[in-house]
Amino acid sequence: MFERYEAGERAVLVHLNFSREGDREDLEELQLLVSSAGVDACGVVTGARSSPHPKYFCGAGKAEEIAALVQAEQADVVIFNHALSPAQERNLEALMKCRVLDRTGLILDIFAQRARTHEGKLQVELAQLRHLSTRLVRGWTHLERQKGGIGLRGPGETQLETDRRLLRERIKTILRRLEKVARQREQGRRSRARREIPTVSLVGYTNAGKSTLFNLVTDSGVYAADQLFATLDPTLRRIEIDQVGPAVLADTVGFIRHLPHDLVAAFKATLQETREADLLLHVVDAHDQRAVENIEEVHRVLQEIEADEIPQLLVYNKVDLLEEAVPRLDRDDQGRPIRVWMSAQANLGQEYLFEALSDLLSRQIVELSLKLPPAEQKWLNVFFELSAVQKSQYDEEGNCLLTVSLPESEWRRQVKASEGRLEHFIIQ
């Protein structure tokens, strides 16, 4: 039994091209992921197969080639740009005498490095434990024996069974804590919904520039870097939009091809901000040659988290890196904004983004002038609670002259509550 190595600084990368479109990955993206994890790639092995090899994933000959390169380069870890089964990982580690990591394990490692908040760390640990639970037996066959000796004789539970039980208990503990976090987030969302404050959520492929855009719009200091998964913890900030008033902008984790299901499940509370948003700002790296593929991948993830029905505004970022593109706002045949071209890094086109936000969110907003007689001024408190009052003053007769701005659905709700009386107080 070889000594298990921890993931180190030097890695051999393995990338296979498969004939099936759904099995293909991107080598350049793997290199970006490895760079984001702080690992130095000392060699790359590529190949082509029609389907994965059941024992080694890459085939026996290719596995020997990788093992020889590991030996020559004194690599600490082999990283596959694919999802490996626990048995394949075990077989590869036995052959190569070093740690073997698949794409999911690599992404989980990056997430573990990036997590800053208590919630983020819990979510990452949950995803890691779920991933680990299927791999406990790998490399630890000696733990399948029952414990023996004085003080260790018990009901016959093996060390492996003990580990699995402890793992299940830890997962249950984390789920309870995340449920508490989810309830707190839900209270915040309900509070915003009562005041009819719209929520705008940034979504997009990882490294599209969401956090840079977020910092530009909100004047925040959220960590932004040219690396995959720079943002992990969701951040909410209040912004002011013309003709709409206050709104909440949410910066969320970026998406990636074949995002591990363990991560999607673990980050349910985070992704809830996206599912409950009134508008999604889909940020696209306009300079990326795979922009169209990335857009499709984001749509797939949105479908998976049931957020694909929410209205979207495409924000083509990094136009300063394109030769002929200029900041602008594209509209459809009905005059509705559909695309914004801008650069968050160079601060170009921000005005077009706010124009689009104002247009899209204000379409649901009504602005009314009311004249409330003294006997009906209880409605003044209602409108203040809804943060809908734009201006208020009194005339000589004690009537309150009020200008309110609120979503049409909320106005209809108040009219119904007043049994239609509010409509009589509208000043034409």
UniProtKB/TrEMBL annotation:
Monomer. Associates with the 50S ribosomal subunit. One of its GO terms (cellular component) is cytoplasm. Pfam families: GTP-bdg_M (PF16360), GTP-bdg_N (PF13167), MMR_HSR1 (PF01926). This is GTPase HflX. Its cofactor is Mg(2+). GO terms for molecular function: GTP binding; GTPase activity; guanosine tetraphosphate binding; metal ion binding; ribosome binding. The gene is hflX. Mg(2+) binds at residues 211, 231. Keywords: Cytoplasm, GTP-binding, Magnesium, Metal-binding, Nucleotide-binding. It is found in: Cytoplasm. The keyword Magnesium applies. GTP binds at residues 204-211, 229-233, 251-254, 317-320, 343-345. The keyword Nucleotide-binding applies. Residues 198-365 form the Hflx-type G domain. CDD domains: HflX (cd01878). InterPro entries: EFG_III/V, G_HFLX_dom, GTP-bd, GTP-bd_M, GTPase_HflX, GTPase_HflX_N, GTPase_HflX_N_sf, P-loop_NTPase. GTPase that associates with the 50S ribosomal subunit and may have a role during protein synthesis or ribosome biogenesis. Belongs to the TRAFAC class OBG-HflX-like GTPase superfamily. HflX GTPase family.
